[in-house]
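Re: [help] complex structure
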Amino acid sequence: MAAEPFDVIVVGSGAAGGTAAHALTGAGARVCLLEAGRSYDPGRETPMFQRTAAAPLRDAGTPDKPFGFYDATVDGGWELPEEPFATAPGTEFRWFRARMLGGRTNHWGRVALRYANHDFKAYSRDGLGADWPFTYDEFAPWYDRAERLVGVFGSNPGLPDQPDSPPGCLQPPPVPRSHELLIMAGGRRLGRPVVPSHTAVITQPIDGRLACFYATPCLRGCSIRANFQSTTVLLPPARATGRLTTLTHAQAYEIEMAPDGRARGVHYLDRLTHRHHFIPGRAVMLGASAMESVRLLLNSRSTQFPDGIGADSGLLGRGVMDSTGSNVWGQFPQMENLPPFNDDGVWLPHVYIPWWAWPEQRAGRLPFTRGYHLELYGGRLEPSADTFDFLDDVSPLTYGRRLKEEAQRYYGSFVRLSQRGEMIAREHNRVQIDPVLRDQWGIPSLRFDVRFSDQELRQTAHAQQSMAEFIEAAGGKLVTPLPRNPAEAILPPGRIIHEVGGARTGVDPARSVTDPFGRVWGVPNLYVIDGAVFPSSAHKNPTLTIVAFASRASEHLRKALRHA
Amino acid sequence: MPDRRETLSWLLRALALSAAPIAGTERAGARILRPGAGGAPGAEGYGRDPSLLHPHIPWPSILTPPQKGAVARLADVFLPEHGASPAASALGVPDFVDEWVSAPYPQQQRDRIVVLQGLTDLERDAGAPIGELDARQAEDLVARLHARAAAGAAPEGRFFRRFRQICLIGYYTTPAGVAQLGYVGYQPSARFAGPPPQVLAKLGIEPGG
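Output below.
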C-alpha cells in the first residue's frame, strides 16, 4: 500500500472528506481515503422497511444506539468507552461520533441552509468572534455547486436571512403535512414566515439517484439514495473513477512533516490489527470531523511545530461552537382523533420557521446579536417508543378502556418546536490535548472547555417564548410550562451535533489557523476542510457549508497539483 | 439535526434519576451490568453494531413465571380487551415488559427496579400471587394502586407511570396496536398528496391554504 503514489491523503469520509474524494478523483487525482470506522454499504445495510415491532426495545434509543436501534449510525454514539474525552471542571460537552464510512452523513437532519452575508461577517457587525475570509457573493457559487451535488429541496421566498438560490439549484419542496399547515396558519396570525425547509432530500431524480418515495424514516439512511449520505452520493462516483483507495479501520493519529515545511503524509493505526502504518501523499486534507481534525493537528508535534501543526497563532483548538438548542412541545386539540391518513411525507420536516427578526436584530433592538431558526417535528409517524412520552402530562394516571381511548385521541397530536441558534465563537471555548487521558490505542484524547454565555441564554429565552407563541397562535397548548430560566431549557453544548471551530480560517496568519482555502498557514499542502475551519457558525446547520467549503478547497488543491 | 424525543427524554431521565442505585452505567456504556443491579449476570446489550436487518435480543429474560403472570394480569387491567381491541396479553405485552426490564441499559435497569419493587408491593397488598387473581380482584388491586398514586404516594405513582408506559409501547407498536391508532405509512409512492380534505376541514384549514 505504502508504495502507491497518492496525490492526496484525505482523512475522514463524511461530508468534507467525501466531497474532497469526489471532487479530486473526478479531476484525475489519485486519492487515499482514511476512515477510522468500518466500511458501510447503505444499499445492503439500511433497514428501510423493517418495522418497529421487530426491533429490540421497539427501537427505543439506548447508549448503544442513541437514536434508536434502526438508526443509520453504526459503531457510534455519545460515549465510546474505548475513546474517552475529558471536560473541564464545571463544564459539560456532548460529542457524538460515528465510526463508519460516510461518518455522520448517514444520520443527520439534512437541513441545508445557506449562510447570508451577515452570517459570514457577523464580527464586523457586533465585534464578537471572527469574520469569515470571504463574502457571500464570493462563496455563493460553491453553494450553488453544493446544492446541485447534494440534492436539496427548498424554495426562494426572498427573505433577508435566507439567500435565494439561482434557478436550477433547488428541487421542488413537498407539500406541507397536517401539523405543518397548522403551524403555518399560526405563523400567519403572528405575521411570521413559515416556509419550505431546505433539506437534503431529492424530490426529482438526479445523477442516477431515485427521488424520495415518501416512505420510511430518513434517519435510518436511504438505500434508494434519495437523501444525501456521503456513502450514497459522493463515494460511489469517486470509486467509479478507479482512482479512489479507501482504507477503513484506519485511525489517523499524526501528520508527518518533511524538512521543507510540507506535510509528508499521515500516520495511522489499523484498528483491527493494531499495526502502525505511514502513508505518504503530495497533499493531505483533514475532514475527520471538526474536533478530530483539531485533535490530529494538536497531536502532530515536531521541531517545527512543538505545540502541534497550526498552533503558531495560539488559536488552534479555540473558538469551539455548537448550535444552541431547546425544545417546546405543543399539543393540538384539532389533531385529536383524526381519521387515518398517510402523513409520512419525506419523514423529515417539509417546512421550517426562518429567523424572522433579523431586521430587528440588525437594528440592535434585541438583547442578543445572533439569530436562530425553529424546526418542527410532529405528525402521525409510526408508533414508537416515544409516541406516548407526554401521555403522563396530558392524561395522568388513566388506565383501562379510558387509557386506550386516550392513546388513540392523543396519537399524532403533539408537535415539537426546536430552536437551532447561533453560538458565538469565543476563544476561551476550546479543546486541548488532555495531559493524561488517552484512547485505547494510546492516542492522546481531547479535553473540552466550552460554556454558553449570556448571549446564548438570552437568545434561548427569546426562542422559548417564540415557540410558545407559535404553538398558541396555531391553536395548540403547551404540554409543560416554559422553564423560568433559559439555562434549564438550553441543551448542553455538543448536543445538537453541530460542533465546529478550532482551526478557523482567516486572512491573517496571526489571527487564524488556515488561509481562506483551508490550508494551514505555513504548510502549503495541508488543508483542513471540515467544520474545524468555521470562524463563526450561523444558526444554519453546518453540513451544506462544509460541503461547499470542501469543494472549494478541493478545487484550489486541484489547481496546485496541476501546477506542481 | 432533528433529535428524537426518546433520546431527549432518555437524557432528561438519565439526569433526573442519576441518583438512582444503578446510576453510573451511563458513562461506562451498556456492556457492563453492575453487580447487584438485579439482572442476569454479565448480560450484554446488542452492542453498537448489531445486524439491523436481522434483529436479535442477546440478553436473557429475568422475570420468573410468577412475575410474568403478575405482569400479564396487571397489563390486562391497564389495557383490557374491548370489542375488537385485544387485551395486552393477547398482543405479547408481558413478553415485551420482560424484554424491557431485562435489558442491560440504564433506563431499563431503572425501570426494572421500579417494576420489580412495584410487583412485590402489589403482591403484598393482594395477599396472593397476582397471576392467580381473578379479573375482578386484579381490577380492585389496580384501583387501590391508582388511588394511592393519585393521592401522591411516590413509589405507587412511579410504578403506575413506568409500568403503564412500558405497556403502551409494547401494545401500540404491534401491528394490531398500530392499526388501532390508525397509522398509515411505509407505502412508497411517486407523489405525496398531503392531508386529505376531511382532515383539512377538521383542522380548519382551507385546501391550498
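Residues 543-563 of chain A form the longest helix (21 residues).
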